[in-house]
């Protein structure tokens, strides 16, 4: 299943099945605004903006925000969070790998869990460099899966693998996507700082996580055919009873919002 269809199918459940609640997003926004020395004129771009989880706090505070995404359903979820689209928000339906903006358009470009999606990462980084203003910031970020939740997912992956159909080999390999982002941008004159914007505790009951996976809310759930998926989930639920002792057990551990901040030297 292509990423466009995948995200369109889960747009209505995307926020509830992730682990970045609104108060945490507000704290991350505070961190970013301080990091980039934001003024009322600072402009933000998020390619792959999705439901707006990461940039909604900037919109509400009056900053100029542009988001681009390939999924109309994800963008509609973003719009539904607002009574009306304010003049400081521009949402564009399109391919985030081809940024339809003039050179030097934005003070800050933010990507979150995005870089793995590009078959030609170098070209995308070139585009970011092109649309950034002088002395602008490129923030490459991700929210790290809480360890307990990651372990839960790894148990499921083991079971799903037994039901997954063999995939034909695909050629050619995506060699260009193996570039080192920091090295690539350093050649363009950027310096990198690694920062943790926020740490917070995530707590889910086993039965809640099972319901998320039964909704097929994550990419790994599309790796097996429909009938096999439900067989795998039944097996996984039995595993959870045996392994955790109860479906009412809480899984609790720390999540992190990490940022690699690139600035022109």
UniProtKB/TrEMBL annotation:
- InterPro entries given for it? Methyltransf_11, SAM-dependent_MTases_sf
What is the superkingdom listed in this entry's lineage? Bacteria
A biological-process GO annotation: methylation
Entries under Pfam families matching the protein:
Methyltransf_11
Q: Where is the Methyltransferase type domain?
A: 45-138
- Write the record's keywords in alphabetical order, separated by commas: Methyltransferase, Transferase
Kindly indicate whether the keyword Methyltransferase belongs to this entry. Answer: yes
Q: Which SUPFAM superfamilies match?
A: S-adenosyl-L-methionine-dependent methyltransferases
Q: Name one GO molecular function term.
A: S-adenosylmethionine-dependent methyltransferase activity
Which protein are we looking at? Class I SAM-dependent methyltransferase
State the species of origin.
Pseudocalidococcus azoricus BACA0444
């Amino acid at each position: 299943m292509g990423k466009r269809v995948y995200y369109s199918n889960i747009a209505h459940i995307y926020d509830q099945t992730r682990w970045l609640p609104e108060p945490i997003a507000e704290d991350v926004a505070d961190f970013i605004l301080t990091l980039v020395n934001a003024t009322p004129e600072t402009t933000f771009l998020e390619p792959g903006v999705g439901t707006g989880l990461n940039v909604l706090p900037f919109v509400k505070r009056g900053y100029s925000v542009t988001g681009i995404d390939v999924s109309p359903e994800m963008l509609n979820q973003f719009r539904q969070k607002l009574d009306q689209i304010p003049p400081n928000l521009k949402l564009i339906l399109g391919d985030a790998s081809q940024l339809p903006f003039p050179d030097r358009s934005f003070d800050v470009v933010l990507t979150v869990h995005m870089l793995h999606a590009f078959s030609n990462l170098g070209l995308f980084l070139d585009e970011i460099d092109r649309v950034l203003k002088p002395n602008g910031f490129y923030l490459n970020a991700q929210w790290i899966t809480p360890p307990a939740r990651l372990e839960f997912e790894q148990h499921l992956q083991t079971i799903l693998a037994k039901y997954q159909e063999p995939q034909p080999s695909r050629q050619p390999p995506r060699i260009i996507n193996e570039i080192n982002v920091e090295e690539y941008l350093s050649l363009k004159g950027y310096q990198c700082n690694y920062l943790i914007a926020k740490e917070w505790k995530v707590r889910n009951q086993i039965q809640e996580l099972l319901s998320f996976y039964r909704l097929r809310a994550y990419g790994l759930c599309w790796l097996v055919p429909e009938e096999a998926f439900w067989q795998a989930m039944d097996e996984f639920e039995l595993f959870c009873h045996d392994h955790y002792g109860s479906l009412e057990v809480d899984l609790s551990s720390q999540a992190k919002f990490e940022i690699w901040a690139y600035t022109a030297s």
